[in-house]
Amino acid sequence: METQDFSLIPRMNCIPRSFDSNAPENFYTPPFITKNGIENVLNNFVNRDSDIYVATYPKSGTTWTISIIEHLLNKAPEQGISTGASNIELCLWLDRTASGENWRSTFLELEKMKSPRFFKSHASVGLIKQPARIIQCIRHPLDTFVSAWHHTRGKTHLFYYNGSWSHFFSEIALSSKYECGDWFDYHEEFLQASEEGKIDALFLRYEDMKKDNAVSAIHKLAEFIGVESYNAEEISTATDFQSMKQKSLVEGHLDREGNLSDVLVSQEVGDKNNPSNAHIRKGIVGDWVNYLSDAELTMWRNYVDTKKDSCPHVVDLFSLDNLLCS
Ligand code: A3P
Q1: How far apart are CA 307 and CA 73, in angstroms?
Q2: How far is CA 145 from CA 152, 242, 292, 300, 323, in A?
Q3: SS3 category, 278
């Protein structure tokens, strides 16, 4: 029987956050996204200023936001949920495609495609080819880390990681070793670039979207991408958690070839001792209280303390009290 080589660090690639010569090499990507792939995008992809990117720190509501935009653009797949395929008809994960063998032919196909083209990305702001229209859904970091632990443990075929929640929290998330690196720095770079007018971006908060089943977010998204005719209530219902969970369970997710797959499908939501591989898992706000011990909460507050001065835009967006969970 094949033995799996689990280690206590998820298997990932580490590349510079941007290709500025001073950029520190501390940006982590899943094994299938490579430095060559990112360079292919920056050097060979013919971008358009109408290109739309859902560019997020993983586990922040990417799939939900993608689904809303697919409905606004009348591009929702007939069956299954898009999670970043290579198929150009779906929301394409550009960096992933660019890291694969067939990137040249896909780039040529993309050149023939009608605008607006629509991509998923987890790249840092310095690695997204500009100009573009960037949509970022941001979620409270502690709920993001809980979701990330399930994601990393649940996808052993990718990450080969078998650490406990506590290990993940202190040694991966708070050590900037999760995908996209440090949660604060990742968002600070986008928020600052937007304020300085270097990128055209729309920021959404997962917690705000949960309050009204994303109705306000749907209006903001429609305005941002220039869609005038749409039914916000219908899109909200089609993309709410229950609808997406049900769709996931019944139809599955579209894999990178555009085929339906049940790899990311599960009824189980898991808990701090039992990871779940469900991509549409629990979908609630504040579940971190069921994961962090008192000692971990203290560790978190000390961590926020070390980041708050260098990340003022993140602190503005969330408020220090909210970040500190006080
Ligand atoms: P949980 O693991 O906390 O349940 P991403 O798409 O960025 O990978 O984020 C995945 C997280 O978003 C998961 O969080 C998932 O359950 C949640 N999610 C997916 N679709 C959702 C929806 N329609 N409404 C609310 N949360 C959703």
Answers
A1: 38
A2: 10, 22, 11, 12, 13
A3: coil
Residue 256 confidence (pLDDT)? 74
pLDDT tens digits for range 156-183 = 888 999 999 999 999 999 999 999 999 9
Residue 82 has pLDDT above 90, yes or no: no
For ligand 1, the distance from its centroid to the CA atom of residue 244, given in whole angstroms, is: 9
For 248-306, write each residue's pLDDT tens digit: 988 888 887 778 888 888 889 999 999 999 999 999 999 999 999 999 999 999 999 99
Q: Any residues with Cβ below 6 Å from ligand 1, and which?
A: 56, 58-64, 143, 147, 150, 239-241, 244, 280-283
Ligand 1 centroid from CA 112, angstroms: 32
Residue 137: Cβ-neighbour burial (10 angstroms; 0-12, 13-18, 19+): buried
Answer whether 94's CB lies under 8 Å from 12's CB. Answer: no
Smallest CA separation from ligand 1 atom 5, residue: 59
Residue 310 backbone phi and psi in degrees, to 5: -85, -10
